[in-house]
Design goal:
CATH topology: Arc Repressor Mutant, subunit A
CATH superfamily: Winged helix-like DNA-binding domain superfamily/Winged helix DNA-binding domain
Strand order of the largest sheet: 4-6-5-7
Radius of gyration: 16 Å
Helix content: 25-40%
CATH class: Mainly Alpha
Number of strands: 7
Strand content: 15-25%
Number of helices: 5
Structural class: alpha+beta
CATH architecture: Orthogonal Bundle
Oligomer: single chain
Length: 149
C-alpha cells in the first residue's frame, strides 16, 4: 500500500508529533502509536485515535482499556488475536499465564466494545481461540467457517 499525498496532507493537519510525520514518509503500510494517539491506515480508510474517540465520520467513546483493545484489533485486521494476546494488550498481563477470570474480564470489555463499533467494523469470536476484526465492504458479509458472532 502506498500512502497518497492526500493522506499525508491530512495527517499533517492533525498536529501530530514530528515522530509520526517523519514515519509517514517511510512506512507504506501501518502506523500506530502506543500512547493513545494513533493513525492507522487500513486499505483506504484512516482511523484516528485519541484517548476517548475514534473518528471516521463518527465518534466512538471508549474506556482506556477499550482503546487499547481497539488499537490491537485495528493493527491486525482479519487476524485472530488470542485471548492471551488481548489480555496482555488490555491489562499488561503475561499472555502465556492468562487465567479464566482474566479471560472473562476481557470478554466483557470486548462485548462492550462490539456494541460501540460502526457497521463497517465487526468483531467476531473464534471459539476457543480469541477474536478477529472484520472490515465489511458494503453489501458483503465477513465469511469464515470458524467465526461466530
Amino acid at each position: 500500500m502506498v500512502l497518497t499525498q492526500d493522506a499525508i496532507l491530512y495527517a499533517s493537519t492533525l498536529s501530530l508529533s514530528h515522530e509520526l510525520e517523519s514515519t509517514l514518509d517511510h512506512s507504506p503500510a501501518l502506523i500506530s502509536f502506543l500512547s493513545y494517539k494513533a493513525l492507522i491506515f487500513h486499505e483506504r480508510f484512516i482511523y484516528i485515535f485519541q484517548r476517548k474517540q475514534l473518528t471516521e465520520g463518527f465518534q466512538l467513546h471508549c474506556t482506556p482499556t477499550q482503546c487499547r483493545l481497539l488499537a490491537a484489533f485495528l493493527s491486525h485486521p482479519e487476524q485472530v488475536l488470542s485471548f492471551g494476546d488481548l489480555a496482555a494488550c488490555a491489562f499488561g498481563l503475561d499472555a502465556a499465564h492468562c487465567d479464566a477470570q482474566e479471560i472473562l474480564t476481557l470478554q466483557k470489555h470486548v462485548s462492550k466494545l462490539k456494541q460501540k463499533l460502526p457497521p463497517f467494523l465487526k468483531l467476531a469470536v473464534v471459539k476457543g481461540h480469541g477474536y478477529v476484526l472484520h472490515h465489511r465492504q458494503e453489501g458483503h458479509k465477513a465469511e469464515s467457517n470458524h467465526v461466530s458472532e
